[in-house]
Amino acid sequence: MRTKFSGILTLLLAFVVQVTFAQTQTVTGSVTDGDGLPIPGVNIIVKGTSTGTQSDFDGNYSIEASSEQTLVFKYIGYKTKEVKVGNQSTINVSLKVDTEELEAVTVTAYRGILKDSDVSSAISTVKSKSIEQVPIASVDQVLQGNVAGANIRVTSGQPGAAAQTIIRGRTSLSGNTQPLYVIDGVPVSEDNFRSLNANDIADISVLKDGAGAAAYGSRGAAGVILITTKRGKRNSGLKIQYRSLLGSSENPSSNVEMMNSRQLLTFQKNLLPGAQFGDGLSDAEIDALSTQNNTNWADILFRKGRTESHELVLQQGGENLSSYTSLQYFEQEGTTLRSKLQRFSFRNNLEGGNDKFSYGTNINLNYSKSNFVVDATRGGNTGGDLDNPFITPFVSLPYLNPYNPDGSLNKFGTFRSGAYLDQAQTQINYDGVAGFQNTPFIALNTAEFNTDVENELRIVGGGNLNYKFNDNWSIGGTLGLDYIQFQNLAIDAPESIRGFSRFATQPEILDDFNGGTQFENFFRDFSFNTNARISYNNLFDEKHKVYADVLTEYYYSNIQNGGFQAFGLNPKLPGSGSGFTDGAAFFDPDPENPTIDDRTYPFIPNAFSSEIEEALLSYFTTFGYSYDNKYGVDFTVRRDGSSRFNEDYRWGTFFSASGRWNIDREAFMDDVDFVSSLKLRASYGEAGNRSIGAGFYAGFQTLSGTPGYRNDLQISAASLADEQVQWETTKQTNIGVDFGLFDNKLTGAVDVYQKDTEDLFFARALSAAATGFTSTSTNVGDMRNSGVELQVSYDLFRQSSTSDWGVNIFFNGAYNENEVLNIENEAGFVEGGSSARIQEGRRAFTYFMQRWAGVDPANGQPLYLDAEGNLTTEYDRAANGVYVDKQFDPVFQGGFGTSVSWKNFSLDALFSYQYDTWKVNSTYALTEDASLAGLLNVNTSMLDSWQEPGDVTSMPGLQYGGLRGQAGDRYLEDASFLRLRNLTIAYNVDSEILEKTKVFSGARVYVQGTNLLTWTEWRGFDPEIGELGEFFNYPTPRVYSVGLDLTF
Amino acid sequence: MKKYLIIIFVSAFFISCEDNLDRIPVDSLVAETAYQNLEDLDQGLNGVYTGLNLNNTIEFNSIFTDNCKIGTNNGGQALNLLNQILNTQTNSAGIWNNRYQVANRANRILAASEIISYDVNDQSQVNQFENIIGQAYALRAFSHFEILTYYGEDLLDPTSLGIVYQTEVNQEGQPLRLTMGESIQAILDDLDLAESLVSNNQTNKSLVTQDFITFVRARLALYTGDYPEAQARATDIINNYTLANQTQYQAMFSGTDRTEVIFAYEARQGFNRNIANLWIFTGTGGNFVGMSNELFDELAAAGDVRFAVNFNPDSDLGAGEIGINKYPGSGGQFINDFKVMRASEAYLIRAEAYARQNELILAADDVQAVKNARSGSSAPSAAYTSANEALRAILSERRLELCFEGHRYIDIKRYRLDLNEGLERDPRDCEGNIPCNIPVNDRRWTFPIPQGELNANTNIQQNPEWL
Question: What was the ipTM of the complex prediction?
């Protein structure tokens, strides 16, 4: 169409304008693209005249021009090229793709969508393609491996579990280290994303440097993640899309070899000192028993979890209105009994208005139901809870029979597992039924009878208005809210082991009363964020572009929490208050002896209620200037006042400055053909962290008023507050280069940064003798993160009308060096859990341990090194410990992958990796604990225990008992990993076939594998789960899925 | 229209509700406004009691010593104590931090007492006021006395290192230690003040009474070598209390009998220190720390009510289980008062004071009084032939009478130089790689100043053994 029109135009011009020059000559040639393919329809004009022609179908042209004149080659989508004729009669030109016109865009803080070339700060963008239809219910998890410099760690395999995200190294030691999440301009709680539908996301911008962070002031120090959801297109017809996903998840391999029945019983009998079950058995009995029962408890407690997702998307746009609506039902079962997430989510994004006035609204309603198990991260659990299903594959005794004589699954236990006092199994052993040996049955029992459900309602919504007075002035405003409400219902049923063993020490109570407890918790977190804006922008002399925005913003959050716990449940009225035992009910163990007042009131319910309020008021401005699209500077100044701090210390000012130089637009680059785009960026910015781990009222010396001694009211100071406390401040310098080479086949960015966190909020040691407190938390420390990031993508082949193949490979990697500069502590260090310390001059959470040195062959005793490196048998971490130069936070991490397409098939693979990250493998340590080997199953490595002088082994003599508490660095393991995070093979049904159906306009089917393969040295289910130490955590599952997308 | 829009918009823009930033905690009080009247002050006093956590002395004195062994269901619990680890980093900070926190709480209400308002012309209000601050002084004295007992360099040498005596509310500071003599005097000064202020009508044994003050004087005098004073103050107590008979004794530990109690740290449902939890999994049953075989044998040999009170008859002795049952509670809830001061201890304080003054017959009579009350008999007193024999008998009686009540470690510490005996566990009690003894001259007989204090306070002097 366009070609035809241009042709007519040219013809007209040729008729109307008669041009003749004395020394004209005919110039011919061809016009090609970067690949040498001819471009038809290129307008070729003699500069300064109206003489022109067009290239023909083969890209050839012919035109009359004099040697003084210049030919201009113009074609949409390509850079215009000018060539002086001179004495050439043949001019062949190659046009370069105009990256400016095809250029990608980036969503920025408060300034909306900018062309990549106009961005002066370090921002990584993740497109919807990487996020959609992945069978992971929490969007933050999905980002793993996709963003250079973002360390995203999954914390649990529970469906919907949130990830821990740390951008460019930890910026806080006791406060929040997670970035601020902003969805369509609304800052939202980062606690969990299980209710949100990731398919709604159009793209995600990760603001990594100081310039991005400063715009969010006291909330931006840990980085900012901007999520933009999809919108309908104006002037588009109704598009209906149905997408579904079906999947199955399973646990990865435990990588630990536990003993089988025969091994364990023989080990108890022959090797383990003391009297255990195995000692009382003859070889024949052991033989019989291990033939009879050799239970793999993982088979009993784990399952293949089902994933199912159905989604309907409706999009439509008129001239003045567009709409995007999605509905999704998502259901995912965990890999163990009871673990499950179900959610229903709805979104509508509406945009309307005209050139003068525009508006948009987003409404996102989500309801989810999570069924939790007793895993290591739930509530106050430790991982060592005996009803944790992930403890069972390790510790459960293989010689126990999981089935009742009638073939049904035994969910209570047996005489042998300690659940009964007698062989006939008539009298419950109240001590033993909740004991170690009964572990697998306790886990089954809890999964079967007990409940831990959270129903969450989450509403994220907002709206924005923009009014343009003229081309230069406009005003606007946004209002957004994030509303989270959940109800937690946790029931230990009266008939369950946990339910009745509350009275294990006095089971007589159960003769008269019911056991069991019911806990309900109602939580509501409501926050809103509103801002108003005046904007100005102008372009002077076609080259000087200026803009300035002035904004004010107010944020308010209110958290309400309340609930109760009631005791003694009537099994006939499960879950109902009618079944609660009256709190006034009492038990008198010997009513006939009234002189001893020993009544107890075990059924008094607990009730609780609390409220937190927070407000944040900000004034800020962003302004900038750019010259000829080649140079640009941007500034932000933001002043925040937070209710968290004392009146005199509540205001802070944060600013940033950043600049860019678009080198590719310089004249001297015109001849550098292989460079499509090249930009140098530099930024400096300061941001704060107001979530400093001191709660919401850090600036107050608060006193507790809860009842105390004798249940009477009391007033006391539970901690010593420093009323001058303020936010932590992060100052970051970033220098980066964005490049696109060889027609943007090779694109990428390199960034180096240094990020200093000052006024780290941390405990400062106090003299207890002087103050009564051992520490006060205040702004004391400094820490530095510095690093390099690289992000590249290379199109090996591009799929086109002439090429069936498209191959892209991409890589991102980040190196981050962390150093604690100062912690204002005489000792120079603070303990940080799992034997890691925060020590000046070292990476945060560097392990300080006494070194394990194996086993003395002479006597089987464990050996250690002292601080000087000499062998010793004494374990004393304080005296003999050293920094082992290993830390928890990974030093290198990132991702890489490929995207291959051939005809209608495509294959996408994403790998993620972390390197140089260390964790204490407490799970493995427990499997090698000789003191537990009488009660629990143990590792086959225990078979190699030292037995007689001369034995050279790494396993100490069993007579030394349990050595877990004195392990030193024995179980400090490398948790580095490389993981095939996602692999998708898809087929897009051919458009010709679709046209014939007259129903579908698009159809895609695919198979997908998530967490398919993991390469690691870690001895356990999953190297990624667990912070500092790992103790029976819920591993990330492997998920196989198939999906179907249909567009009508 | 446009004009109005702009006006509305601009005014909305600059409505700067900075007052919105004043958000006061909903769930807690704020220091500036917490103390207004006598009732607030009384609640502050209850905060001092609430802060006191005496479990750490019970725990240390039982598990660290020969009164305990590793329990049959131990999965790693209390191993540091069973292994007798005591150094600047391990097991040394609990008592220090808690007792100084109690002193701080007392100081806070003493400071608040100067700003609260009450009617100075109303005698009942004045009495109430004095009774409150008197108890605060007494608790401050008691806390410092305990710190002195564990951390003082040498209780019998007034020139040795004493403790920091905390009398003010401080935000920071790096104080030096007083001498032992100065420390003792500071405690006595607080006790004098307390004695002058605490109401004589105060008889609730869960609170500080005049007898509480007398009892602290008796212990302090005994520990620091003022035997005539110890003898006199113990006599004051003995004159006011009778020893519990066997029924009462049993009811004292399983129920609420307070016949011979001078001060009990009261436990109630809702506020309970759960003492039994120091040794057993009170949720599910099972011992991670058991009674030592040696103590079991001694209790069995004595054959009186104390055996039944201390030993859990449900124990599987064949499997090596010896359950501690001094704080059984009922209904699975283990609600038990800690009987901090009892008349029988006053008898044994006086017996020791006599013995150390070579009044061996009187000493024997006091020991026998306790024995007879426990066995329900009226056997004649033993005849000691030497002061050391008397001391040995008193030490043994203290063990039977006061086991699991926070005395054993301090007793051995105080007697060890007289008897030239340290701590010796029976070989059966050090199975499972548990150490068997602590020699007489071991440095662990004095607590080190904990590392946390050393880190924050560069002035404080460490005990010489720990340098």
Answer: 0.92
